[in-house]
Write a structure and sequence with these properties.
- The complex is a heterodimer of chains A (about 425) and B (about 170).
- Chain A is α/β, with parallel strands linked by helices and about 425 residues long.
- Chain A folds into three domains: about 150 residues, Aconitase, domain 3 (2-Layer Sandwich); about 120 residues, Aconitase, Domain 2, CATH 3.40.1060.10; about 140 residues, Aconitase, domain 3.
- Chain A contains 15 helices and 19 strands.
- In chain A, strand 9, helix 6 and strand 10 form a beta-alpha-beta unit.
- Chain A is globular and about 60 Å long.
- The termini of chain A are far apart.
- Chain B is of the alpha/beta class and about 170 residues long.
- Chain B has a seven-stranded mixed β-sheet with strand order 4-3-2-1-5-6-7.
- Classes of the chains: A alpha/beta (about 425), B alpha/beta (about 170).
- At the A-B interface, strand 1, helix 2, helix 3 and helix 5 of A face helix 4, helix 6 and helix 7 of B.
Chain lengths: ~425, ~170
């Protein structure tokens, strides 16, 4: 019997099996942000264990609340900053050089095929787009990761999602993943890895693959994964060109990180995306999904474009395509948060920021921002936001507020209409 | 080892998420104790009052996929500082479940029918639940008589409960 990609990564990283089905893996990367890491740091200090397993493998960013909004968030940043300096962690992205963790870390080339990655953030599954096993964990797992460079997991079964056909114009990775979550339900992939394969994924950019993998957790998945291919090599090439004589050599090395043809899956879900329409959520769970067509005209108060799901340059380009020469409706306000400084700079260079501003968007610095209602862009009670983020839980963006998840194209079109609307890029 | 017995709080809903257990606006706190007043503040459940209904409870009984969403360990911490060290459910989200055991707390899974039985027989009554750690069973009582229900727990999870969490275990072994 062959092995899945996740099984191969487990086999290559297992350092102990203290109990049946408890696999202690060595970690290639431990990512940290200012919300879930400070308590790990203060606990390590209290235990007299204030050290790190390897400062090169730990990458740190302030992203959830940046710049600090009050004394408490300033303190969180300070604990993280002081620790990074004390432990000689070179890759610390402080205010001004920071961006959303799951956008900036891939951009810096920190994730490679076959890696194990943990972070105290549930959307860590994003990094599986590179053919890595990347799992969100709590602060205690993070603390042990920082100290010992290991993490314990049950052996994950894998759900294979095969995406076939051709996406219609104006349909994006976000629409696909919303449809997949609707099929799997919010706990259909609990304790499992979701493997995204098939010609549709093969044709996707790394950005689009990250959008897919980002929302694996919304079906309960431990990690999303895509197979590494030439698109992966091209994305990483600037960071790996010293390691390999050619792109072909890199690809050959990375090709060990794919599932065997006779690998065993918990489930195989084949989806032909050819008839898929732009999708949107309608309730307080990410599996409550409908075509935008059925939700057109629904009232909105705010539009938010950004986050680790859809704050990358491709996302901003699509939104700008819709917004060019248009105005945000007087019925709503609109906010865009480019996910990283590079995304922001590139968007400036391409005139995208000007399009957003001319349309009447508030352009914020790179940050997780409105997504989880703990920084800027918070909703008032009873307000509704059209958002390119990943979670529509009750009160997520502010107590009593509601969120409809959608693609950047749909969000931009909805900003112009002042209510939920299909984008003109979708020809139907 | 923590204490695993006391009055039960019945939350009759699937998919109670971490944002409902502890909203993100309180994640700026850097001590666990500071989370205490906010447990279940955003829980969407008719008739539920987070201040009144949580007080004096030690065990939560709920349905499917409890703790879905965010990785925030603030969710188990908010339970812990309120004296709730046990959640009994039909199923849990992976990260929440692991966080509970990593903190030396119990996330006990029971079959759907058993959970339904617990709701039918005990919800709405003052119910005392004790986890018999050695015996791998929970003991329930509401007025007269007691009922014992066995549960299964993996060797690793049990060890974390007995040894008080993952940091101490990992520091000793790795």
């Amino acid at each position: 019997m062959g092995k899945t990609l996740a099984e191969k990564i487990f086999d290559a990283h297992r350092v102990d099996m203290p109990f049946p089905d408890t696999h202690v893996l060595k970690l290639d990367r431990v990512f940290c942000h200012e919300i879930t890491t400070p308590i790990a740091i203060t606990d390590l200090m209290a235990r007299g264990l204030d050290r790190v397993f390897d400062p090169e493998k730990i990458k740190v960013v302030i992203d959830h609340v940046t710049p600090a909004k009050d004394s408490k968030t300033a303190e969180q940043g300070k604990i993280l900053r002081d620790w990074a300096r004390r432990q000689d962690i070179k890759d610390f992205f402080d205010i001004g050089r920071n961006g959303v963790c799951h956008a900036i870390f891939p951009e810096k080339g920190f994730v490679r095929p076959g890696f194990t990655v943990i972070m105290g953030d549930s959307h860590t599954c994003t990094h599986g787009a590179f053919g890595a096993f990347a799992a969100g964990v709590g602060t205690t797992d993070l603390e042990v990761g920082i100290l010992k460079g290991v993490c314990a997991f049950h052996f994950p079964k894998t759900i294979k999602v095969v995406l076939e056909g051709t996406m219609r114009e104006g349909v994006y990775a976000k629409d696909v993943i919303l449809h997949v979550i609707q099929q799997l339900t919010v706990n259909g992939a609990t304790n499992m890895v979701i493997e995204f394969t098939g010609p549709v994924v093969d044709a996707m950019s790394m950005e689009a693959r990250m959008t897919l993998c980002n929302m694996a957790i919304e079906a309960g998945g431990t990690s999303g994964v895509c197979y590494p291919d030439m698109t992966t090599v091209e994305y990483l090439w600037d960071f790996i060109k010293e390691e390999y004589p050619s792109k072909e050599a890199a690809l050959e090395d990375y090709s060990q990180w794919v599932s065997d043809e006779d690998a065993e899956y918990e489930k195989v879900l084949k989806i032909d995306v050819s008839d898929l329409e732009p999708m949107v959520t309608f309730g307080y769970k990410p599996d409550q999904v409908k075509p935008v067509r059925e939700m057109e005209g629904e009232k909105l108060d705010q539009i938010y474009i950004g986050s680790c799901t859809n704050g990358r340059i491709e996302d901003l380009r699509v939104a700008a395509q819709v917004l060019k020469g248009q105005k945000v409706s007087d019925d709503v306000r609109a906010i865009v948060s480019p996910a990283t400084p590079n995304v922001y700079k590139q968007a400036l260079k391409e005139g995208i920021i000007e399009i957003f501003q001319d349309a009447g968007f508030c352009v914020t610095n790179p940050t997780c921002g409105a997504c989880l209602g703990m920084s800027n862009g918070v909703l008032a009670e009873g307000e509704v936001c059209a958002s390119t983020t990943n979670r529509n839980f009750n009160g997520r963006m502010g107590k009593g507020g509601m969120v409809h998840l959608m693609s950047p194209a749909t969000a931009a079109a909805s900003a112009i209409a002042g209510k939920i609307a299909n984008s003109p890029l979708y020809k139907g | 080892m923590k204490s695993f017995n006391g009055k039960a709080l019945f939350l009759d809903r699937n998919d109670i998420n971490t944002d409902e257990i502890i909203p993100a606006r309180y994640l700026t706190e850097i001590t666990k104790e500071a989370l205490k007043p906010y447990l279940l503040e955003d829980l969407s459940l008719p008739g539920f009052d987070s201040r009144e209904d949580v007080a004096g409870k030690a065990v939560i009984v709920t349905r499917e996929n409890f703790g879905c969403g965010s990785s925030r360990e603030h969710a188990p911490w908010a339970l812990e500082v309120n004296g709730i060290n046990v959640v009994i459910a039909e199923s849990f989200a992976r990260i929440f479940r692991q966080n509970m055991y990593n903190c030396g707390m119990f996330a006990i899974e029971l079959p759907k029918e058993t959970i339904a039985h617990l709701f039918d027989k005990y919800a709405g009554k003052e119910t005392q639940i004790t986890v018999d750690v050695d015996g791998n069973k929970i003991i329930l009582s509401a007025g007269e008589g007691t009922e014992e229900i066995p549960f299964s727990v993996g060797g690793f999870d049990k060890t974390l409960v007995v040894e008080g969490g993952w940091v101490g275990y990992a520091d000793k072994n790795y």
